[in-house]
Amino acid sequence: MLYLTDTALDELHEIRRYSIREFGKRAAYKYMEGIANIIRMLEDWPDLLREKPFSNNLKFYPVEKHILACTIVENDIYVLRIFYGGMDIESIMNELEPNLLEEARILNMRLKALRN
Asked: What is the pLDDT of residue 75?
């Protein structure tokens, strides 16, 4: 399964708001549809996620002008953050990675408890 954290969902909403404001509803819809299609594709083909030299535990996938930062826990994919591609992701990951991994671990434990 593939899950988005609350932070990733908030970032999707912000991308949508920005896209509507800057490019209009029609363009925003197409952009968001492209992101949604990639997310669905990654659920079926998690091997498309790529490692980066600055992170030992996270995997990444570019989509449009953004990059999905993900981790895999017990065969479930967690989209942790959605970054604008122009950001210095390496510096951000050095600071955020431990917290993101902990967030994924906790979310995984909660979901396991719900399944049982």
From this structure: 87
Class of residue 58 by CB neighbours under 10 A (exposed 0-12, middle 13-18, buried 19+): buried
Superfamily of domain 2-115: RelE-like (3.30.2310.20)
The DSSP secondary structure of 9-73, one letter per residue, reads HHHHHHHHHHHHHHH-HHHHHHHHHHHHHHHHHHHH-GGG-EEETTEEEEEEEEETTEEEEEEEE
Place of tokens 């390496």: 90
- Work out the percent of the chain whose per-residue pLDDT is above 90: 62
- 24-55 residues labelled b (16+ CB within 10 A) or e (exposed): eeeebeebbeebeebbeebeeebeebeeeeeb
Distance between CA atoms of residues 30 and 33, nearest Å: 5
pTM for the complete prediction? 0.86
The rounded distance, in Å, linking the Cα atoms of 64 and 30 is: 11
